[in-house]
């Protein structure tokens, strides 16, 4: 049994690579400085595929993300991501180490995070999910998001697959994927039309003004899911999720909430608020009783875990189907052996 270490993480262990200013190297092949281990796929997500790689000079391992930039817009997005990542230095945020641009492909070397997605960890047979463990995770997420916001950046795609565990057994997490992140300019009204509908705030769906509070809605949805195994605005289609988000209705009636404290429900209620300005900020979250006090709740949340398993398995299927569709679009012919 793995009882997650519910203590707060020790800062020193978290900084695996030194913080440094990254200058994009033009027309330099990453293979001159790194061995890319293509059969060691670390992760695959909406951001593309990430491979294990090793710096030749130091022997240090990193995660290499390759992006084929097909047009000006894709190039601009990637440049924005590099620009944003290069000014984020925090133990709860993935670090950018190096960047290469050869005109057609941009390759970024990122800190290696080897523990996998948080929700995959949580559903492991050996992992005992308790409210106390959820507090340990949510504290770190709020810490990371608070830092991003303090640097005037909004993440805009906070969702379970963008929260990774540093190791397979520890309790430390890091936030990834700044592909949709934006710098907040108080002089300009910022509106966007993207994100993952299930975890996106109503102001995004309604194409209203967004701000730091937009990320806080996503944290509310993630927290609801982590504590109950139910995604509050899940829909069979994106349109259905978007409709649910714009209505903004949720409750704590499911039996999964039977063992969940009032403080936890109050925490969620202060984030899943339609009016963005009325949501707690990340800094206020850390001052909320639920995160401030160490909860006594150490009962294993078995109903939550069973539901979370279903959620994760469904996501794996969707990912697999999307991969097949993408491959077919590229001309691949796939035969299925139905056993
Ligand atoms: C790892 C291990 C892993 C996935 C990743 C890194 C992905 C990181 C990433 C970071 C970004 C981004 C997309 C992906 O836009 O399993 O070390 O900033």
Task: Please outline the helices and strands.
Elements: E1 2-3, H1 11-14, E2 25-26, H2 30-33, E3 34-45, E4 48-55, E5 61-68, H3 72-85, E6 96-101, E7 105-111, H4 118-122, E8 127-128, H5 131-150, E9 153-154, E10 163-165, E11 173-175, E12 182-183, H6 202-205, H7 212-228, H8 238-247, H9 262-269, H10 282-287, H11 289-292, H12 302-329
Bound molecules: piceatannol.
How would you characterize the overall build of this protein?
The protein has 339 residues and is α+β, with helices and mostly antiparallel strands. It folds into 2 domains: 94 residues, Phosphorylase Kinase, domain 1; 177 residues, Transferase(Phosphotransferase), domain 1. It contains 12 helices and 12 strands. Strands 2-6-7-5-4-3 form a 6-stranded mixed sheet. The longest helix is centred in the C-terminal third of the chain and has 28 residues. The site of piceatannol has 18 residues, from strand 3, strand 5, helix 3 and strand 7. The site of piceatannol (PIT) has 18 residues, from strand 3, strand 5, helix 3 and strand 7.
Keywords:
alpha+beta, globular, 339 residues, binds piceatannol, Transferase(Phosphotransferase), domain 1, Phosphorylase Kinase, domain 1, six-stranded mixed β-sheet, 2 domains, two-stranded parallel ribbon, 12 strands
Q: What spatial form do the alpha-carbon principal axes imply?
A: globular
Output the CATH topology of the largest domain: Transferase(Phosphotransferase), domain 1
Helix and strand succession? EHEHEEEHEEHEHEEEEHHHHHHH
Report low-confidence residues grouped into runs of 5 or more. Answer: none
Per CATH, the architecture of the largest domain is Orthogonal Bundle
Largest sheet: 6 strands, mixed
What ligands does this structure carry?
piceatannol
Termini gap: 34 Å
Structural class: alpha+beta
What CATH first level of the largest domain would be assigned? Mainly Alpha
User: Could you estimate the helical fraction of the residues in percent?
Assistant: 25-40%
């Amino acid at each position: 049994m793995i009882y997650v270490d519910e203590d707060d993480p020790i800062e020193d262990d978290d900084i695996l690579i030194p913080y440094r200013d990254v200058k994009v190297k033009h027309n330099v092949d990453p293979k001159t400085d790194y061995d890319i281990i293509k059969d060691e796929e670390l992760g695959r997500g909406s951001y593309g595929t990430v491979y294990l790689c090793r710096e030749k000079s130091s022997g240090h391992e990193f995660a290499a993300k390759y992006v084929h930039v097909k047009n000006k817009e894709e190039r601009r997005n990637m440049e924005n991501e590099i620009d944003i990542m290069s000014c984020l230095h925090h133990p709860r945020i993935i670090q950018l180490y190096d960047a290469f641009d050869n005109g057609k492909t941009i390759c970024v070397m990122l800190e290696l995070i080897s523990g996998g997605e948080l929700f995959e960890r949580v559903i492991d047979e050996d992992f005992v999910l308790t409210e106390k463990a959820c507090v340990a995770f949510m504290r770190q997420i709020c810490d990371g998001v608070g830092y991003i916001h303090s640097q005037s950046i909004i993440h805009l795609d906070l969702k379970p697959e963008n929260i990774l565990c540093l190791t397979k057994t520890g309790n430390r997490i890091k936030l990834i994927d700044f592909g949709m992140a934006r710098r907040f300019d108080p002089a300009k009204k910022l509106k966007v039309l993207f994100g993952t509908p299930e975890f996106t705030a109503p102001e995004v769906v309604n194409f209203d003004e967004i701000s730091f509070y937009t990320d806080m809605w996503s944290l509310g949805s993630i927290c609801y899911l982590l504590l109950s195994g139910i995604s509050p605005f899940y829909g069979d289609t994106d349109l259905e999720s978007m409709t649910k988000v714009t209505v903004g209705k949720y409750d704590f009636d499911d039996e999964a909430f039977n063992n969940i404290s009032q403080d936890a429900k109050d925490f969620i209620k202060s984030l899943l608020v339609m009016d963005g300005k009325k949501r707690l900020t990340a800094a206020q979250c850390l001052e909320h009783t639920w995160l401030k006090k160490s909860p006594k709740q150490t009962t294993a949340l078995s109903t939550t875990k069973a539901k979370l398993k279903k959620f994760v398995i469904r996501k794996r299927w969707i990912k697999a189907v999307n991969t097949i569709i993408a491959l077919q679009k590229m001309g691949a012919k796939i035969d299925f052996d139905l056993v």
